[in-house]
Amino acid sequence: MSNLPPDMDPLETLSNAIADAPGVVAGAETLDGLDRIESELLGKDSPVGQVRAGMGRLGTDLKPKVGAKLNEATSRIRELVEARRAELEVIEEVRRLQSETIDVTLESVRFPTGSLHLVQQTIDEVVDIFVGLGYKVVEGPEAELAYYNFDALNTPATHPSRWEQDTMYLDWGAPQDEVLLRTHTSPVQARWMQSHDPPVYVVVPGRCYRKDTIDATHLPVFYQIEGLAVDENIQFSDLKGTLLHFAREFFGPQSEVRLRPSFFPFTEPSAELDVSCFACDGGVPGCRVCRGAGWLELLGCGMVDPFVLETAGYDPGKVSGFAFGMGPERIAMARHGIDSLRHFIENDIRFLSQF
After folding, report:
1. Where are the alpha helices (DSSP H) in 144-257?
2. Which residue pairs, CB below 8 angstroms and at least 24 apart, start in 333-337?
3. Is 42 helix (H, G, I), strand (E, B) or coil?
4. What is the helix (H) or strand (E) element at residue 269, kind and residue range?
5. Is the pTM of this model over 0.70?
6. Cβ–Cβ < 8 Å for 286, 304
7. 67-99 pLDDT, tens per residue?
8. To pair with 154 at 20 to 30 A between CA atoms, which of 28, 62, 263, 327?
9. Alpha-helical segments (H) within 200-235
């Protein structure tokens, strides 16, 4: 019998293996443990393995009986192992899920969510109103030629705003090629008219620069939103109607506007536009917004001066237009009752998080 011990009865050995297998397999607590038990029961050093190895030495009368019993033992043990493996896989999965369970009732780690700055929110809202009227949003350089910042807008060389102490020049001295940080966004209007035929309907948001000392109502770097409309037969009433629509969209449908005569080099006639106080609706003493005046100064506007149209290459006899300019900081202050421009640049999260 070669590999079989002399005192081993193969049929008895296989019968004992079949009888003992259920208890041994059931004792496996883990998948790794089950693999070891399977090797002990069916491996080459196991009793079943020894019978398998000695099959070639059995007599012809015993070999069929032992072969049939060997197949029975092998199949039975493998069935028991696979059944126990399925049970242990379920147990392992449940154990893993329990160990990795997240208590969703616990407070999660929350990171603060940022938002657009109040000035940018105001710019976006104002621009959206005019885009709804068909205006195009355009931009231009912040480092500008003095020609577009002043000359093309009918600002004479003697105007105080052209003095070095009032304007931030990058290259000052020769009027024909002076470069400065623009003092308003109106140069974009001049550039646009030079390169586009009428009709023109544009709104121009952007950053501007002036030599102002920081205080409650002034900043050296600030924003403007300017608008320009040039077309056939545009009249002053179109300007007032457009700005009334804007005021009612931004401050509320109850808003009214009034125009006060003013002066700007690039518009004639020119006006300051006030909007009725949205907080008290009529000049209530002690109003936090209008301080009892009943009106809020909002922006400057007027009909485009014929000289500006001619400089751009337009014929003032065929087209006319209006322009307006506002500071988003100013109208944000009016709407929210903010008392100082400093709040916009101090980066105080207590202030910014309110908006």
Report:
1. 146-149, 186-195, 236-251
2. 334/275, 334/289, 334/296, 334/298, 335/122, 335/250, 335/251, 335/278, 336/118, 337/279, 337/288, 337/289
3. helix
4. strand 267-276
5. no
6. no
7. 888 888 888 888 888 988 898 889 888 888 888
8. 327
9. none
